[in-house]
Structure formats: structure tokens, C-alpha cells
Design goal:
The chain has helices spanning 2-19, 28-45, 49-58, 64-67, 70-83, 88-100, 114-125, 129-142, 160-165, 170-176, 188-212. It is an all-alpha fold and 216 residues long. The chain has a single domain, classed as Hypothetical protein af1432 (Orthogonal Bundle), CATH 1.10.3210. The termini are far apart.
């Protein structure tokens, strides 16, 4: 148990070093929120809390948006785990979770393990509600995306590559991803938490569009 706590502490330091200056909404505080949610959900559904917490801590170090591409990011995490002699029984499920976590335009296969479902739910919960709205605009601004263009309708994506290349407006991102997440939660506790956050998204969009059209 002591070694687990040592690994988790080292992971926190590593992630803060990697993501501490991020301004895209994938910063250390996002990771901390996801980790706290993953730990909470793991306890509610009796998943392996250590695997969930370690995967949640490391998940955005491997994100293509941060690392540049998925292979480089996964190798960075794999090397980190190997350097600390994390047992295969832990490192393999952690890497599998990280490799299959992202939304990718809705084109990823379902999470295979309960631990994967927990971490994915925690990450998705942080993409909706008030924090999700703030993160969406932070990311859109970091990529030079327009706030909203009523002449550019939301898109659907046939592949994760097409989703990754999209330069759609931030408001479109709500319709292309965020509003889908409530019904894509894996676990019952996450579905309950997602209900209120989803309603907040809908309220925000209603107000935004009313103001945009000059009705308020």
C-alpha cells in the first residue's frame, strides 16, 4: 500500500510538471477534478480505485492535444510507468484506459473494463456543466476557433481523424460532443451526476442564442 501511495504522489508531481502551464482546459486542475471524481465513482461501483486513480492522473499526458500525437503521448506514459516498475497488472489496464478514453467524435469502442468506464465517466463529467462550458471556450480560444457562426451548422464525424481536424465553432462543439455525453455515461452514479450538468448546458445555450438573436 505504501508503494501505491508513493506512485500516486509521484504521478501528481509528474502531471503538474507536464500540464501546470496549460491554458486549453486540460491543465492540472482538470486532472485533479477528474481524479477526485474517478476515486468517488470507483468507491460507488466497487472498481479498482488504484487503477482508476492512476489512469485519471496520467490520462491527459498522453492526449494528442497535449503530446502532439497519440503514440508519443502513450509512450511517455508507458516509459514513466516502466521507470517506476509499476507491475503489468496495473500498467496494462492503465494504458488501455488512456488509449481508449477520448470521445473522438463518438467513434471510439466502448470501454472494456469497469475501471475504464469509471475514468471515462469522470473525464466526461468534467466536460459538462459550468466547468465544461468554461473549458469549451478556453479550448476554442486556444485553437483560434470562432465563438459562434450561425451559417456553419454542427457536423458529424465519420472518424476520429476527421473529428481531430475539425475547426468548428465553440458553440457547435456543444452539439457535436457535449450534449451527447449525458447519455454516454457508463455507470449509474455518473448518469445521476450528469443530469444536472446537462441541464445547465441546455440553459446556457438557450440564453446564449436568445442574446445572440437580440431577444434579451
Amino acid at each position: 500500500m505504501e508503494r501505491r501511495e508513493e506512485i500516486l504522489a509521484e504521478a501528481r508531481l509528474f502531471v503538474r510538471e507536464q500540464l501546470g502551464s496549460d491554458t486549453t482546459g486540460h491543465d492540472w486542475w482538470h486532472v485533479e477534478r477528474v481524479t477526485n471524481l474517478a476515486r468517488r465513482l470507483a468507491g460507488l461501483v466497487e472498481a479498482d480505485a488504484y487503477v482508476c486513480e492512476l489512469a485519471a492522473l496520467l490520462h491527459d499526458v498522453a492526449d494528442y492535444k497535449i503530446a502532439g500525437d497519440e503514440a508519443t503521448g502513450l509512450r511517455r506514459v508507458s516509459d514513466w510507468l516502466e521507470d517506476r516498475h509499476v507491475a503489468d497488472v496495473v500498467s496494462k489496464p492503465v494504458l488501455e484506459i488512456i488509449a481508449t478514453l477520448s470521445f473522438a467524435g463518438g467513434n471510439q469502442p466502448p470501454m472494456r473494463t469497469l475501471e475504464g468506464q469509471v475514468v471515462q465517466d469522470a473525464d466526461r463529467l468534467d466536460a459538462i456543466g459550468a466547468i465544461g462550458i468554461a473549458r469549451a471556450f478556453a479550448f476554442g480560444g486556444s485553437r483560434g476557433r470562432t465563438l459562434y457562426d450561425p451559417e456553419q451548422p454542427p457536423s458529424t464525424y465519420a472518424s476520429k481523424e476527421a473529428y481531430h481536424k475539425s475547426n468548428s465553432s465553440t458553440i457547435n462543439h456543444f452539439y457535436e460532443k457535449l450534449l451527447w455525453l449525458k447519455d454516454r455515461m457508463n455507470t449509474a452514479p455518473a448518469r445521476q451526476l450528469a443530469e444536472e450538468r446537462h441541464r445547465y448546458l441546455e440553459t446556457f445555450l438557450d440564453e446564449f442564442l436568445e442574446e445572440w438573436q437580440g431577444h434579451r
